[in-house]
Amino acid sequence: MTESESATVDLEIIVQGAQEGKKLELRLWLRMLSTTKLVSQEIRRRLRNEFGATLPQFDLMAQLYRERDGLRLGELSKRTMVTNGNVTGLVERLETDGLVLRVTPDGDRRVTVAKLTEKGMVLFGAMATAHEGWLRDMMADVDPAIVTELWQDIGAVKSSVSNHLSGSDFD
Amino acid sequence: MTESESATVDLEIIVQGAQEGKKLELRLWLRMLSTTKLVSQEIRRRLRNEFGATLPQFDLMAQLYRERDGLRLGELSKRTMVTNGNVTGLVERLETDGLVLRVTPDGDRRVTVAKLTEKGMVLFGAMATAHEGWLRDMMADVDPAIVTELWQDIGAVKSSVSNHLSGSDFD
DNA sequence: GCCAAACCTTTGACATTTCAAATATCGTTC
DNA sequence: GAACGATATTTGAAATGTCAAAGGTTTGGC
């Protein structure tokens, strides 16, 4: 009986105005965070049980799956939002499992390009199909119109956040 | 420095590419995930720079701050969505820093209760104030009405997900 | 009272995560 | 063509994360 009374909250906002509104962003953030954790844990559990893979591995392979020619590790780092050093270890383990291949192009020896192997493509194909189904199942009770609306509005949040980051944007 | 203005990480576009056949739920999930990562990284960076604390430590202390009598480790684990073994280490490090105290009650020697110290309460108070401000700033461009709407709709998502978990409750 | 089941926490093996420092290579400049 | 700054990746230390197994401690049935 903790958070089923959103009507009460709305009333408070209307009545008290800016007072209560100050904590709106905090409450949204906490709810986003807990929901994301919940979904992540469920996906992690299923990836592990059904495919013996981890979520970061899945994310990384997803990037390589759409770029059949492979990606440089730095590019992988940006796309997965994972640090460089982390990508190194992830690719290393995936290579050990025969899912990914590392190549250094002739043109630039600083670069390492990671590519999915045939085995990696087959495995990821199966995981991706399952993954999409899991999400549909988990969100089955949400009105599709709401899903679309959420997608748009969260885009607005992301945009606002991107414009207010502290790191490296004051010239 | 060709990227001084494009430092914005728009994972979405890169990841999604042409978003043809992608299901709605999958797209929402990818956007939620990338947005949450973005905010988390920003909060992590600021906690580190301004308070020398980590995000998991902040989360754990937040729970103890609201329960001045302390919480059992299992309860902390549930509330922070962190595994038991992980809580053990987190509390251990916080105790080393003098922010948290561990007590075993007389009634049940299986139990360990963690409590914020005076030092811990002072530190958390400062962090919480800053934390709330950071979120307000980051979401400053989002219409408050949208924030409220998002809070409600994400609640619906969370509720749906909770009802479709494989792990523990189908009955 | 005893024993088995249930409960709470810790431990151990690994994987992931960040940051900073180190390495290696490339391009340009002089 | 040697040196310097920029670029790309790796490494290392410390923290966080999962899971499964192992420790102690109750608790309940007999």
TrEMBL record, chains A, B:
Q: In the UniProt record, does the keyword Nucleotide-binding occur? A: no
State the signal peptide span: none
Q: Which GO terms describe its molecular function?
A: DNA binding; DNA-binding transcription factor activity
User: Looking at the keywords, is Disulfide bond present?
Assistant: no
| Residues annotated as transmembrane | none
Q: Which PANTHER family match?
A: MARR-FAMILY TRANSCRIPTIONAL REGULATOR, TRANSCRIPTIONAL REGULATOR, MARR FAMILY
Query: What's the protein name?
Result: DNA-binding MarR family transcriptional regulator
